[in-house]
Design brief:
- The chain folds into 2 domains: 218 residues, Rossmann fold (3-Layer(aba) Sandwich); 71 residues, Alpha-Beta Plaits.
- It is 38% helix and 27% strand.
- It is built from 11 helices and 14 strands.
- Helix 8 crosses helix 11.
- 35% of the residues are buried.
């Protein structure tokens, strides 16, 4: 649905983004991450047609965002960090206006507005002035204007910025629901939110893409192997000895102590030691109460990638 191919944007001598490439499949929810000033908003503005690239191409649903801009923009719903709301209008009149300028057929506008109001649970606010709404409701109205024309693609820039924890949960659930019917690019500083919503992430730093993968794939790649958490019943020294003798095990350390301690088992890249680990410990008479892989958190992945890139740049 979205193809970004070697896109660069310069403002005079200043580089905003350079040679950015990635794609988003139909029905995918993609997280777009980066530090402040990394080029996220510039890239999203280029995708949505608000800003032309200096070089490179963007295609949305098969249409070139520059050469066929109108056709591409018809298929995009955009929620910028500050929603484009008219505070003096009521919610329903505003959405009716947006539907009209988004070329929803006149006979369908009322039904479409009703549908969006119901879907985003805006009924209590539909007749109220936007300026009198809470931040959470204004954010819902922002999402409503992005989907009122039923676009194929949604581009959401910091959709939960400034919300309280309850409002964040509500908007997060709405985005999950929207992901069933739309292709979504989601930019957010709340990395656990991205982990919960997005199947894949693009990380950009200093205007360049530094990683494209699933959160789990990035974790395993950066760790250069897998870390297993094993809860094992038995004498610690003997268990550590058995673990250390397994081919493919780089190290084993005790995590949480107790009658059945947690052990963190680091493996070599490409090595799956779960089956031999099971049989070796069973033969030694040490029951395994739990065995599962442990991934780096998205925060750890993000910090490692962006810090390494900054250090390399410096």
């Amino acid at each position: 649905m979205i193809e970004v191919d070697r896109v660069s944007k310069f403002y005079g001598p200043v580089r905003a983004v350079e040679e950015v490439s990635f794609s988003v499949a139909r029905g995918e929810v993609l997280g777009f991450l980066g530090p402040n000033g990394a080029g996220k908003t510039t890239t999203m503005r280029i995708i949505t047609g608000f800003t032309p690239p200096t070089s490179g191409t963007v295609r949305v649903a098969g249409f070139d965002a520059l050469e066929e801009g109108l056709k591409a923009r018809r298929r995009i719903g955009y929620l910028p960090e500050s929603p484009p709301l008219y505070p003096e209008m009521t919610v329903r009149s505003y959405l009716t206006f947006i539907a009209a300028i988004r070329e929803v057929p006149a006979r369908r506008i009322k039904g479409r507005v009703d549908e969006v109001v119901d879907r985003l649970e805006l009924q209590p606010a539909a007749g109220r002035l936007i300026q009198n709404l809470s931040k959470g409701y204004r954010q819902r109205v922002g999402l409503a204007q992005a989907i009122v024309h039923d676009p194929d693609v949604l581009v959401l820039d910091e959709p939960t910025a400034g919300l309280d924890p309850k409002q964040i949960i509500e908007i997060r659930e709405l985005i999950k629901q929207l992901g069933r019917d739309h292709t979504i690019i989601l930019s957010s500083h709340i990395l656990p939110e991205v982990s919960q919503i997005c199947g894949r992430v693009v990380i950009i730093n200093r205007g360049r893409v530094v990683a494209v993968d699933t959160p789990q794939g990035l974790s395993r790649r950066l760790r250069q192997g897998q870390v297993l958490l094993a809860r094992i019943k038995g004498p610690q020294e003997r268990v550590l000895q058995v673990l250390g003798e397994l081919p493919g095990v780089v190290s084993a350390q005790v995590g949480t102590p107790g009658e059945a301690p947690d052990y963190h088992v680091q493996t070599s890249p490409g090595q799956d030691v779960r089956e031999p680990l099971f049989f070796k410990l069973a033969a030694a008479g040490f029951p395994i109460l739990e065995l599962r892989p442990v991934d780096l958190s998205l925060e750890e992945v993000f910090l490692q990638l962006t810090t390494e890139e900054v250090a390399a740049g410096d």
